[in-house]
Design goal:
mainly alpha
Length: about 90
């Protein structure tokens, strides 16, 4: 994932932590795909496939399965993807 993509994801995740007023912004689709790939999910091409993968992740994590990668979803995606990367590298405590 590019540095710009990571900043977008981090910004959206932070927004989920502090709480957005109004409609929360969705994350960049390429960043969401990269995070899902870190978790072993490979959604097919197209927005419908990505939304379906996001809904599946939301269902597994207890979020409202709306298929939108808003701040709470991106926060959990980023957190779990980081944990998976650390486990793969043997860095987890």
């Amino acid at each position: 994932m590019s540095a710009r993509g990571m900043l977008s994801v981090v910004g959206t995740a932070v927004g989920g932590l502090i709480g957005w007023t109004g409609t929360p912004p969705a994350a960049d689709p390429a960043s969401v795909r990269a995070l899902l790939a870190d978790l072993g999910a490979q959604p097919g091409p197209g927005d419908d496939n990505l939304a379906q993968a996001v809904r599946a992740f939301q269902t597994r994590t207890g979020l409202d399965p709306d298929g939108v990668a808003g701040p709470q979803t991106v926060h959990l995606l980023a957190r779990y993807a980081k944990e998976v990367r650390e486990l793969r590298l043997g860095l987890a405590a």
